[in-house]
Amino acid sequence: MEALLITPSLSRLKPRLILPFSAPTAAAAASSFFPLRCPHRLRLRLRSSASADQPPPSLEPLDPRAEEDYGEVNRIIGSRVVRSPEFADDGSVSAVAATEYLIEWKDGHAPSWVPSSAVAADVVAEYETPWWTAAKKADAAALSALLCDPDASRDPDAEDPDGRTALHFVAGLGSEECVRLLAEAGADVDRAERAGGGLTPLHIAAGYGQPAAVRALLAAGAEPGALDGRGRTPLELAREVLAATPPTAIGRRVGLEAAAAEVEAAVYEWAEVGKIIEGRGEGKRREYLVEWRDGGEREWVRAGWVAEDLVADFEAGLEYGVAEAVVGRREAKEGGGREYLVKWADIEEATWEPEENVDPELVEEFERREAHDGAAAKESAVMGRGSAAHVDIV
Q1: Architecture of domain 327-394 in CATH?
Q2: Residue spans in the chain of domains classed CATH 1.25.40.20
Q3: CATH number of 273-320
Q4: CB–CB of 222/201 below 8 Å?
Q5: Where in the chain is the domain with CATH 2.40.50.40?
Q6: Rounded to an integer, what distance in angstroms lies between the CA atom of residue 321 and that of residue 344?
Q7: How far is CA 190 from the centre of its chain?
Q8: Could you list the pLDDT tens digit for every one of the 394 residues in the chain?
Q9: Which CATH architecture has domain 120-267?
Q10: Which residues of 6-24 are buried (b: 16+ CB within 10 A; e: fewer)?
Q11: Which one-letter DSSP state was computed for residue 185?
């Protein structure tokens, strides 16, 4: 009597590897089910019948991470992005991102993580399509429902094939509500896309002229000085796009100008630089370790955010201090010109400095004060002489 001892698998895991297999021995054919291990340790399932005239058993690859044959996939209940190092021939190391899905099995086994390449496309689509549809429409209600689904967890940093997250799409569409929603769910507001130029959500919001999204991202902690793949900040990108936008595109230009203004305000809210301590990097990636005038911890700041005169003095090797006032003036002994006696905020002793090293406003203030004091002294002297004459007459 012919009897099929195990039904074909209903698993919707995609086969990852097809291995050559020879016909089993008679003893093996008589067994109804047993696992095999190939050199690559791929879990295989053998289906056979007890009849000798049946065709050779077939092999069905299963999840290579699985320890048991789980059977049919019920649905995906979670996702995550896993990054692993990849070593190039030149010795450099880069991070390779791969998506894994948390599979719920119909036979009651505990959910397990499975690489996306091992899951059938229709199963993935059932899980992914609603998320990306909501993101690409900036549908806050749909995103909220998916994030709050009690039966399935959602990774707010889920990536599409280009490494973009939902935050990239809603930022480009200018949805302040969606930006806040995703940020509150834990989305990385500074995540750079892997393709398309390494843009962060703030780059995209600024480049598309979406000031509301820019505000929401900055409020969520987005870094206004983040660099894209070409070394541009969001502000620089917005200005670049604005310069290329024709004057007739009035609405577009207004949006870009407003977005640039939002980023610029965030950049210059930092503080006033008191002193440059150190520099590093070259070209557009040049940065300076600065000391803030109002105190606080020292920070590395992009060269473009530091006053040009401070940068020039630092690169020329000049020491730079915080001057409080000019308290004296004299003619320079060598080379001509004037020197000013400067009182410093961080140095007890005043020093003589050439005019070009002194803040013009302090010089102007000193000259104005000197002129006023000179006029007052002259008036006092005239009044003194008048009183003496009056005494003589008396």
Answers
A1: Beta Barrel (2.40)
A2: 120-267
A3: 2.40.50.40
A4: yes
A5: 273-320, 327-394
A6: 7
A7: 2
A8: 333 333 333 333 433 333 333 333 433 333 333 332 323 222 323 333 333 344 444 434 444 444 444 467 778 888 888 877 766 677 666 667 788 888 888 877 888 888 888 888 888 888 889 999 999 999 999 999 999 988 888 899 998 888 899 999 999 999 999 999 999 999 999 999 987 789 999 999 999 999 999 999 999 999 998 999 998 999 999 999 999 999 999 999 999 999 999 998 887 655 678 788 899 988 877 889 998 877 778 888 888 778 888 888 888 877 656 778 888 888 887 777 888 888 887 777 888 888 887 888 888 888 888 888 777 666 666 665 554 444 444 3
A9: Alpha Horseshoe (1.25)
A10: eeeeebbbbeeeeeeeeeb
A11: T
Locus of tokens 């297999």: 21
Q: Which two tokens stand for residue 230?
A: 């070409």
Q: What does the block give as tokens for 379?
A: 């008036």
Give the predicted TM-score (pTM) of the model.
0.54
Tokens found for residue 92: 């450099």
For the record, the structure tokens of 145 come out as 């429902």
